[in-house]
């Protein structure tokens, strides 16, 4: 198991918070909460060791398309593929917008 | 086909969605929610990724207007295993419900059980928590029904199968399984000839929801449908306390087991007959 930290530039904090997913096989749990303006911090606890670069690239690719809101995101990962991670993050962004 | 389109699967819902689906709309209020991060202190140091709610959702609300606390176990996280935190959440919720009743608030409890039992990584702490759950069910069920629902697909095993047995009422679907030991444990102990854990029809024929209902070990056998499960739970809450708790019928069951001829391998029909025969 590894714990990884990431930080990205961001916009304004969202109003609500959201929880999506589950720490089940091939899945992950994502907790999204409002953070300090201008900053997006992510902490990943993952069962797969040595994948820091993959997480970094995945986040960069998602956030370069659109400036994310200022949040703290906690991820508890149980071997999700990058595709599943992306789907869960997008689901989380959508739910946080609804609040 | 039209039947399929009108049904909403309960089995496919996660634990939090299940709790929400059972409670009256807008009444779901989660206690110790995942953002409070009351997580297992033991999994991380053993290299296992924890979950923010430790796989247990406790929600207060109402069902049919009646006050209730729902404890739902997430079967997809570590097989629904119960450790120190998740176990304490359930035991504490049941103890508070019993306290409510002593203060004149008739809080009922619904347990959504998808669990392999104790979490091996937390060993005795998980077992102690499960013992607390047993004691709390026995306390609460004097006042109001404690309703267990085993929907599947994990089923309910180990110490938590005893918790299921202590419930005032038990509801199962065809997907459910209920047994003290899980199939792989029995195979390991008794041998492949006796019990093949990969033989799914065989496993369900002995421990599946339909067989448990036909044996009289559970009270309601329902389809995997949100509305039907919701209606069944509501009706059981209205029914009040059972005339006699199943777990108090020790003499009846012991007498039946004494009669059993164990020289031949028992078949499902014989189990039904054994338990369902003449009742006192």
From TrEMBL, chain A:
<dbReference type="GO" id="GO:0000036">
    <property type="term" value="F:acyl carrier activity"/>
</dbReference>
<dbReference type="InterPro" id="IPR023439">
    <property type="entry name" value="Mal_deCO2ase/Cit_lyase_ACP"/>
</dbReference>
<dbReference type="GO" id="GO:0005737">
    <property type="term" value="C:cytoplasm"/>
</dbReference>
<dbReference type="InterPro" id="IPR009662">
    <property type="entry name" value="Malonate_deCO2ase_dsu"/>
</dbReference>
<dbReference type="Pfam" id="PF06857">
    <property type="entry name" value="ACP"/>
</dbReference>
<feature type="modified residue" description="O-(phosphoribosyl dephospho-coenzyme A)serine">
    <location>
        <position position="25"/>
    </location>
</feature>
<keyword id="KW-0597">Phosphoprotein</keyword>
<comment type="similarity">
    <text>Belongs to the MdcC family.</text>
</comment>
<protein>
    <recommendedName>
        <fullName>Malonate decarboxylase acyl carrier protein</fullName>
    </recommendedName>
</protein>
<comment type="function">
    <text>Subunit of malonate decarboxylase, it is an acyl carrier protein to which acetyl and malonyl thioester residues are bound via a 2'-(5''-phosphoribosyl)-3'-dephospho-CoA prosthetic group and turn over during the catalytic mechanism.</text>
</comment>
<keyword id="KW-0963">Cytoplasm</keyword>
TrEMBL record, chain B:
<dbReference type="GO" id="GO:0016831">
    <property type="term" value="F:carboxy-lyase activity"/>
</dbReference>
<dbReference type="InterPro" id="IPR017556">
    <property type="entry name" value="Malonate_beta"/>
</dbReference>
<feature type="domain" description="CoA carboxyltransferase N-terminal">
    <location>
        <begin position="1"/>
        <end position="251"/>
    </location>
</feature>
<keyword id="KW-0808">Transferase</keyword>
<dbReference type="GO" id="GO:0003989">
    <property type="term" value="F:acetyl-CoA carboxylase activity"/>
</dbReference>
<dbReference type="InterPro" id="IPR034733">
    <property type="entry name" value="AcCoA_carboxyl_beta"/>
</dbReference>
<dbReference type="GO" id="GO:0005975">
    <property type="term" value="P:carbohydrate metabolic process"/>
</dbReference>
<dbReference type="GO" id="GO:0016740">
    <property type="term" value="F:transferase activity"/>
</dbReference>
<dbReference type="InterPro" id="IPR029045">
    <property type="entry name" value="ClpP/crotonase-like_dom_sf"/>
</dbReference>
<dbReference type="InterPro" id="IPR011762">
    <property type="entry name" value="COA_CT_N"/>
</dbReference>
<dbReference type="GO" id="GO:0006633">
    <property type="term" value="P:fatty acid biosynthetic process"/>
</dbReference>
<dbReference type="GO" id="GO:2001295">
    <property type="term" value="P:malonyl-CoA biosynthetic process"/>
</dbReference>
<dbReference type="Pfam" id="PF01039">
    <property type="entry name" value="Carboxyl_trans"/>
</dbReference>
<protein>
    <submittedName>
        <fullName>Malonate decarboxylase beta subunit</fullName>
    </submittedName>
</protein>
